[in-house]
Amino acid sequence: MTRTVRTTSLALAIAGALTLSACGGGGFKDDSGSSAPASASGPVDLKMLIASSGDAETNAVKAAADAWAKKSGNTVTVTVASDMNQQLAQGFASGKPADVFYLDASRFADYAKNGSLFAYADQFKDNSDFYESLRQTFTYDGKQYCVPKDFSTLALEINTDSWARAGLTDADVPTTWEQLEAVSKKLTTKDQVGLGIGVGIDRLGAFVVQNGGWWLSEDGTKPTASTPAVTEALQYVQRNVKAGNFKMSNQLDSGWGGEAFGTKKAAMTIEGNWIKGAVKNDYPDLKYKTVELPAGPKGKGTLQFTQCWGIASDSTAQAQAVDLVKSLTTVEQQMAFADAFGVMPSRQSAADQYKTKFPEDAPFIAGGEYGHGPINAPGMEQVVADLNSKLENFGGADLSSVLKGFDTNAGAVLGK
To answer: pLDDT digit string (tens) for 8-19?
Structure first.
C-alpha cells in the first residue's frame, strides 16, 4: 500500500536525519586526511565491529584478524553487532567507536561529512586495483576515504524448466529490453509471471542505469529523478507491470524477488549473488541459471551493493588499523572470504581467479565493470525511504508526480 507522507512530516524526518548525522566521534574535524595517522606505541588491541551473515562469516573474519594479530604482535577483538547502524552511531556519539568496522555504502557519506572517518585509501599503493566504481562509492568531496571489502551486483535469474516449457533456447537469452519483454510474455502463464521484481529502487534502479540515468547528478549535488532518462526507464517497467508479464514481488505475496522465484510464482527475477544461498537452503530442487542483465538503450547497467572497511577518526591506533585492513584485502584473503561465505572480491586482479572457482557467478562479477553504487549523498536516508514508499504500488504510481516529489525533497536536503 502506498503511504502518503505530508511535506511537514517529511521535513521533520529529514531534519532528524541531519541532526543525527551531525553527531559523531569525529568532532567535526576539518582534516580527516591520512598524512599523519595515529600510531599507538607497543602492542595494541584493535576493536572491530562487523555485521555478520552467520557463523561462517564471523569465523572467517575472526580467523583473518587473528592471523594478522599473531604476525604483527597485536590483538583484535571482533564484535558482531546485533544492530549495526545503531551500534556504530552510538560508538561515534560516545567518542569511543570501534577502530575498524563494516561501513555500508548507503551510510558512508553521512559519516564522511561529519568527520567520523579516517581517510586512509591513499595509503594503498595498489588502490587502483579496486574497481573504480566501488572506489567512487566511497569518495566524498573528492576524497576516497576507505577501500571496499567486497561487493554484490544484480543479474537475471532464469528458471530453466519454465524456459524449456516455453520453447525457449539459449539463443533466446535476452540481451536487450525488447528481448526481455518478449521472453517474459512467453514465460507468463496463469500460474507464473514472466519476470518478478523486488519492490523499490534497489531493483528498479538497474533499469535507470541501463537508460543512462540516476537519481542524483554525477557529483551528487543535484536531484535528477524527473529527467527523461529516469522517467522513461521506470515507464518501461510500469508498462510491462500493467500488461501482466512483469510483476512486483508484493503483487506475488512475496517478501523479495528471490522468494517469488523460489516458489515458482515468477519464471525470472533480478537479484544479487546472495540468491545462491537462499535457493540452496530454501528451494533446493529449483533448477536455474544466471545471466547478465539485458542492456538498455544506453548500454549495460546493474546496481552494486558494497561495504568498506571503515576506520574511525577517533582511533588512537590508525596506523595499525590500516595495516590490518591491508591484510584483510589481499587477493588471497578476499578469495578465502569468498570460499567461506560467498562474497565477491573487490579487487579486479581477483576476478579471473574468482570466475575460475565460481563460474556460475561470472554474470555477477561482470557487473563490477559497469555497475552503479547506491545513493550516497549525506542526509538522504529519509528521502529515499519516502521514494520507495511511493513506489510500493508501482503499477498504479503516478511516476511524474513521484519523481518530481523526490527531486523537491532531495533538493531541500542537498541545498543544506
So the answer is: 333 333 334 333
How many domains are contained in the chain?
Answer: 2
HEC letters along the chain: CCCCCCHHHHHHHHHHHHHHHHCCCCCCCCCCCCCCCCCCCCCCEEEEEECCCCHHHHHHHHHHHHHHHHHHCCEEEEEECCCHHHHHHHHHHHCCCCCEEEEEHHHHHHHHHCCCECCCHHHCCCHHHECHHHHHHCEECCEECCCEEEEEEEEEEEEHHHHHHCCCCHHHCCCEHHHHHHHHHHHCCCCCEEEEECCCHHHHHHHHHHCCCCCECCCCCCECCCCHHHHHHHHHHHHHHHHCCEEEHHHHCCCCHHHHHHCCCEEEEEEECCHHHHHHHHCCCCCEEEECCCEECCECCEEEEEEEEEEECCCCCHHHHHHHHHHHCCHHHHHHHHHHHCCECCEHHHHHHHHHHCHHHHHHHHCCCCEECCCCCCCCHHHHHHHHHHCCCHHHCCHHHHHHHHHHHHHHHHCC
pTM value is 0.89
On whether both 227 and 323 belong to a single domain, the answer is no
40 and 159: one domain? no
| 400 and 254 co-located in one domain | yes
Stretch 219-236: mean pLDDT, rounded?
97
User: For all residues of the chain together, what is the average pLDDT?
Assistant: 91
Looking at the fold, whether 193 and 231 belong to one and the same domain comes out as: yes
Range of the domain at 236: 153-303+379-408
168/291 same-domain check: yes
- Same-domain status, 404 and 293: yes
Residue 157 included in any domain: yes
If asked whether residues 163 and 298 sit together in one domain, one would say yes
Write out the three cell numbers for 104.
555500508
Sort strands 193-197 and 246-248 into parallel, antiparallel or unpaired: parallel
Q: Are residues 183 and 278 in the same domain?
A: yes
Residue in 152, 149, 136 with CA at minimum distance from that of residue 311: 149
pLDDT at 34 over 60: no
Whether residue 337 is contained in a domain is answered as yes
Check which CATH number belongs to the domain holding 47 and give it.
Answer: 3.40.190.10
